[in-house]
């Protein structure tokens, strides 16, 4: 709900600013626009037509009309606003790749604009919305992580950064989940060293995620399978110190007791 509020607030601020421009220009909306074929139109009418389509939920057509504003009137003050509204319209239409392209274009031309934080945030959101389940390739998830991190780095005190941080927690949990899925597959295949590497990645890179306790247990399991019980005890001890009430600690304790009874005193 917080994200939706941010989107609406940002869109409202953009629309409010352009409404003021419309009032100054004296233009009126052209609800009769049927397509985006090139027809020379004054900038106020063209922009108002795009805004009208967006208000009516015709996001794809609105995006094309906002693009037309820039194409027909590239040096107008409306062109800059239209670039960002085009990105928002594509995002609303769930055409995330075009939303990213439009927002990136806006930033390349107007890097210091007051709406730059929203453009960066919109890029992050567009990647975030494309995250797939952990059984699939996670390149988009990594791109979401990079884009959202950029929001928090550049605009740390903004409301966009606050929401980006919340999403980053979910993104990192997702990436950790992918590492766990691969690690478990390697374990089932008897490829213990490859599994060890994946679980260690979770402990090193995603230690604050919900997957860390299981990763430590799996490292205990893999170490025993590789014939290095001392390492298994080390991982079990870390698990006990950080997650003493976890089911994974109980399982690690039982596993050590079963496979390496001479090391059964985990905390020792």
Could you list some keywords that capture this structure?
0% strand; elongated; 12 helices; mainly alpha; Serine Threonine Protein Phosphatase 5, Tetratricopeptide repeat; single chain; 268 residues
Would you give an account of this structure?
The two termini are 48 Å apart. By secondary structure, this protein is mainly α. It is elongated. Residues 15-33 have low confidence and may be disordered. Helix 9 packs antiparallel against helix 10. It has a domain at 1-130: Serine Threonine Protein Phosphatase 5, Tetratricopeptide repeat (Alpha Horseshoe), CATH 1.25.40. The chain contains 12 helices and no strands.
Residues in helices, as a percent range: over 70%
CATH architecture of one domain: Alpha Horseshoe
- Determine Rg (CA atoms, Å): 26 Å
CATH fold description of one domain = Serine Threonine Protein Phosphatase 5, Tetratricopeptide repeat
Mean pLDDT: 86
Residue ranges: pLDDT <50 for 5 or more in a row? Answer: 15-33
Q: What is the CATH first-level class name of one domain?
A: Mainly Alpha
The strand count comes to 0
Helix/strand order, N-terminal first: HHHHHHHHHHHH
